[in-house]
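#struct-pred
JK: can someone run the complex with magnesium ion? inputs below
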Amino acid sequence: TERTLILLKPDAVERALRGEILRRIEAKGYTIVALAQRTATAEELAAHYAEHEGKPFYAPLVEYMAASPLVAVVAEGERVIEGFRSLAGTTDPTTAAPGTIRGDLGRQWDAPVLQNLVHGSDSPESAAREIAIWFPELG
Ligand code: GTP
Ligand code: MG
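RT: done, structure tokens with the ligand placed:
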């Protein structure tokens, strides 16, 4: 079995979509093994988004992620890394497939960065790295 790091981003919290998103994760059969709501620190976001440093959307991305509380989640299940990315849908909410979290619930806002409700680790290596950032006690 496998674990992944999911973030319900500030737009998901602000739009009161936590329950709807967690419902989809649980309905799929994944187990939520850790969950915490807090405002991300600059250090957590710098570590989490290190791969995007230097890209044009990096500064607005970090600003959006730090602006208000998010919910960090560790979910567990068979092939959950790939499975949650599939539940989430593709990055751009405008074109994400209907049936996915981003496709059903996301839309484009007049904002400097794509607000797409959720993050999910994209590989076992990313999952281990990201779980250690958000839940060091699980390391
Ligand atoms: P995450 O699950 O959040 O990592 O999404 P992802 O893997 O689908 O996207 P990626 O890791 O490539 O980018 C991280 C975040 O940066 C995205 O979720 C968006 O919020 C934002 N982002 C990515 N690409 C773009 C882009 O081309 N333009 C803008 N404005 N924002 C972007
Ligand atoms: Mg990513």
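RT: quick notes.
The beta strands are 2-8, 31-38, 70-77, 118-120.
The first strand starts at residue 2 and ends at 8.
JK: thanks, will look after standup
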